[in-house]
Amino acid sequence: MQIFRIISALISLYTLLCFVRIMLTWFPGAEYSKFGRVLSQACDPYLNLFKRFSFLRFSAFDFTPAIAICILIAASTICTGLSSGAKITLGSLLAMLLSMAWSIVSSILMFLTIILVVRLIVYLIKGDTSTSYSIWTSVDRALTPIIFRISGLFTGGRPVSFKTSLGISILTLIVFNFVGKFLIGFICALLVSLPF
Q1: Tell me: the pLDDT tens digits for 122-154?
Q2: Which of 13, 34, 36, 94 has an alpha carbon 20 to 30 Å from 27's alpha carbon atom?
Q3: Residue 39: which H helix or E strand, with range?
């Protein structure tokens, strides 16, 4: 049982290193420092395993690091459970994996919702900013395909304004997140109650 505790601690440490590596990419030049290069050699082989999954990238948003971190957290949680002598059944394992997967999806949905709300507020305050280059031009370039695809589900493909598409997308993401949380919780409870 002690071996699982050690493995869990090592996985947690590696998770922290991967998280720091990901954060360094947000600061120009930081990933090219000596510390950044050492972290890159240690973490990039693992993180790059997830780069091949193109469905985890939406326009300019790349969610592959979140998946990589969540898998490490799941492995650490399993090892911690094994070290404490907890009985891990197939149902509880499936419930944990489903819960982790939903956590990732929910985080992505909340992230997109926050960006869309901020964009809608800026749009309502400043009006259409697409005529001049600004940070919002880049944001709009990344968001427009997503919001028009979501709003198209409800408008039957009829053209709608950018503001209307933003509103429909925000409401859809909030409802989907709420309903998804309820359904995943219900399914996980059923899985945990399985005898095997």
Answers
A1: 888 877 655 556 677 777 777 888 888 888 888
A2: 13
A3: helix 34-47
What is the full DSSP assignment across 95-152?
A: HHHHHHHHHHHHHHHHHHHHHHHHHHHHHHHH---TTS-SHHHHHHHHHHHHHHHHHH
Chain position carrying tokens 């899985």: 191
Q: For residue 153, what are its two tokens?
A: 């589900």
- Cβ atoms of 177 and 104 within 8 Å: the answer is no
More confident residue, 87 or 181: 181
| CA–CA separation, 143 and 176 (whole Å) | 18
Q: Render the burial of 86-122: b for 16+ CB within 10 Å, e for the rest.
A: eeeeebbebbbbebbebbbbbebbeebbebbeebbee
End-to-end CA distance of the chain: 22
Share of the chain above pLDDT 90, in %: 19
Q: Which has the closest alpha carbon to 104: 14, 174, 180, 11?
A: 180
Record the tokens describing residue 85, joined without a space: 């002598």
What's the CA gap between 192 and 196, in Å, rounded? Answer: 9
CB 43 within 8 A of CB 18: yes
Residue 38 exposure: Cα atoms within 13 Å on the Cβ side:
4
